[in-house]
């Protein structure tokens, strides 16, 4: 895909996001966080005129620590790639909490994958091992919480929030409203876990810094090329293969028949679970909505 193609597809995506309306609230599992449209302050680039969402998705959520201002911004970075960012500001403290790449794959008709690895980057003075241990523990806890909330998080700690088809001008595995809700939810929750964004959510436990080193056998697989990842673990499902599974199953859940237009969030699942010997190959993969996938656990559905 050329730079012009990336720019064109990003503009199509931005235009559709600008037209998508959200209620002045977000849904976090069964919890609803109410807010208002708009922010009162300058946050990062929201007044600079070059970001593509044009202040259309900015919200203020009153929380225990004050008014949490949220600004979604989509623009081209210095590497000529487009990313969707979430910036927050509260009590004068501002920062970026989360972003997703607009990633394309040649083997899947140049659809755009809205995906990002979940990781943390804070440092400790004088103790890199302690910093690494704390980052890893937060990554484990946060990813497990996201999975329980129905998010599609891979074993490689990548979260897949949406798959956008520029030709059809729509998401194929979720609705635009759910995508925006989920992106804001992940961003706000991650800001809570980061611990340096000026707020803590009362619905989550306080996440203080560790004073001991956490150890475990579940070491992270870094963001390697897909062929290398496949050699590391056959459980991880490459992005291009995910799209092929959705296409094979006509972009709907094979258990209940729901699709994105019905409000479903679609996941790709192993028919025979990996833990029971199932392989990551097309004939052992199926499309399930998040509800059916959560209810399946390690049971074999065919």
Q: Topology, please?
A:
Blueprint: H1 3-19, E1 25-28, E2 31-34, E3 36-37, E4 58-63, E5 66-76, E6 82-90, E7 93-104, E8 112-117, H2 128-148, E9 158-165, E10 170-171, H3 176-194, H4 226-232, H5 239-248, E11 266-270, E12 285-289, H6 290-296
Antiparallel strand pairs: 1-2, 3-4, 4-5, 5-6, 6-7, 7-8, 8-9, 9-10, 11-12
Average pLDDT across residues? 85
How many helices does DSSP assign? 6
The shape is globular
Largest sheet, spatial ordering of strands: 3-4-5-6-7-8-9-10
Number of domains: 2
Largest sheet report: 8 strands, antiparallel
**Topology pattern, helix = H, strand = E:** HEEEEEEEEHEEHHHEEH
Structural class assignment: alpha+beta
| Sequence stretches where pLDDT stays below 50 over 5 or more residues | 214-233
Protein architecture, described:
The chain starts with a helix and ends in a 6-residue tail after the last helix. By secondary structure, the chain is an alpha+beta fold. It is built from 6 helices and 12 strands. The radius of gyration is 19 Å and the shape is globular. The protein has an 8-stranded antiparallel β-sheet with strand order 3-4-5-6-7-8-9-10. The chain has a two-stranded antiparallel ribbon with strand order 1-2. Strands 11-12 form a two-stranded antiparallel ribbon. It has 2 domains: 3-194, no CATH class; 235-296, no CATH class.
